[in-house]
Write a structure and sequence with these properties.
The chain is an alpha/beta fold. It folds into 2 domains: about 5-50, no CATH class; about 55-195, Glutaredoxin. The chain is built from 9 helices and 5 strands; from the N terminus they run H-H-H-E-H-E-H-H-E-H-E-E-H-H. A 5-stranded mixed β-sheet has the order 3-2-1-4-5. Strand 4 (about 140-150) and strand 5 form a beta hairpin.
């Protein structure tokens, strides 16, 4: 391979490589550049040997159509487990809203305030509902993402959905017997809830 072409390719690849993104703000030394290029070259020759990092995300998908007691209980448990409560959107106003107000305004967001005050991480994410075709809430989703450092791509390896108006502890208990990384993530989350049902 032409050395000039290789170095142009290497530099263009290093610009997009996660290694550069996580580097300190100080300039790289020649040794660091050579080490990075050596690692990149090895990964290009053997992509299967590229280290992969597995991360897990958990979400509890909810709606204001649920009973208040269920929503409050899930908010408490989700806060303690570090799992966000995810809504598809803002609730419909009981009285006609002022058409001059934007969709996200203090009146439309007031319904979330008690949940936020309880310490729950509240998110709006309609894409999550679409991605997993969620039609019934509540639903616990534990999703595994594998990122390969060779190309920086993140791909979802698998996800598990536990639907039903149950406690977060019960939903996690349904996954803790699994012998895979989803089961391991469920056990870690369940441990944060202690003996709570």
């Amino acid at each position: 391979m032409n050395k000039s072409y290789f170095f142009k390719y290497l530099l263009s690849t290093l610009v997009a490589c996660p290694l550069v993104c996580t580097a300190s703000s100080e300039p790289w030394t020649i040794e660091e550049v050579l080490e990075a290029s050596s690692e990149l070259s090895r990964q290009m020759r053997d992509p299967e040997a590229a280290p992969q990092k597995t991360q897990h995300q958990a979400f509890v998908l909810v709606s204001f159509s649920m009973p208040d007691a269920s929503l409050e209980r899930l908010a408490r448990d989700a806060k303690d487990a570090g799992v966000p409560l995810v809504f598809r959107g803002v609730p419909q106003a009981k009285e006609p809203a002022d058409p001059k107000l934007p969709l996200l305004n203090p009146q439309s967001l007031a319904a979330f305030q008690p949940l936020i005050d309880s310490g729950a991480d509240v998110q709006l994410n309609p894409e999550l509902f679409s991605e997993f075709n969620i039609r019934q809430v509540p639903a616990l989703i534990v999703k595994e993402e594998v990122s390969a450092s060779a190309n920086g791509c993140i791909q979802t390896a698998k996800a598990v959905i536990v639907p039903g108006d149950v406690t977060l502890g019960y939903a996690l208990d349904r996954l803790t017997d699994r012998k895979d990384s989803i089961g391991e993530a469920a056990r870690d989350l369940r441990a944060k809830l202690g003996n709570r049902p």
